[in-house]
Amino acid sequence: MTDHIVVPRERTGIELDEFLCLLYPLLNKGFLRRQVREGRVLIDGQPTQPSQRVRSDQVVSIDIDEEADDLPQPPVAPTLELVVLFEDDEVLVVEKPAGLPVEPERWERGNACLSGGLLQLALQRADVEPEAADLPAEGLGFRPRIVHRIDKETSGAVLVAKTLEAERRLREAFAGRAVHKQYLALVEGEYPLAADDEALIDRPIGPDLRRSGRMRIDEQEGKPSQTRVRIEERFAGFTLLRCEPVTGRTHQIRVHLAAEGFPLAVDKLYGRRDALKLSELKRNYREKRGRAESPLIDRLTLHALSLTFPDAAGGLHEVTAPMPKDFQRALKQLAKVRPYRRR
To answer: Is position 208 annotated as part of the catalytic site?
Structure first.
């Protein structure tokens, strides 16, 4: 069955593959581009190219090959309600909870992820039912495009472009270091830095070839990597740091802090704990009879606190993500049972 779609005035000037992405939100761009090249997408009855810009009142005829071996299957994922921290015509900033991957995981593609939640948000706003989202309608108002990543077990702010132009501009801003990110990192140990001072960790990072998925300091072949660090709050045996990654390497903050001798308080990969419990912080701790102790926090003690990014007019936006309850709980107990005493 061929669908015939009249290009609305507000879509004038966008590239054909982008227009198709808005019409078929669950089909990926690569697949749609192949449909165009195979002659299954026509503009006013004529073959075209994915980069062709559409004009108002043109008729786009689409005959999707539903028997194609590479036809993407709609993901089955739980409904996910995302907290939007900031939005304008070009971008969204959303709050990612800890434990939620940014993209579908290879072996758990049916589970919830941030990109799936963003697509659900776009479908809801377009009043399109997810099970019918492979059918053309008026199209999505925007197709979300995540422009940076944070680890699955990290909470906090994630920047999302709503248009191709915004995505390109923000990626250029990241490359030009015009986007600034700040993280809160609860680390093991008392970081030796004066309250008003700032330290720069400048150590190259590369993949650890002996352990898949792990990074390491590599002075010979690693990529240049810098992280600015300052004290946010002190405790006995622990420090809350505010970290600003100057570069954007995989696991950068975690690797840098561990290399300095101050790993995250909870980090299975680079630290020594998979959870932080009150029993290891409080003297004379007494376990409640018949109840196993629940950890204060059982994921990375890392929170993407804020993003500062430019808009198309040259202004700057700063958006802050509130600290999650588990992080607050850990800090509250540390302040109570491990107060810092100046030596």
So the answer is: no
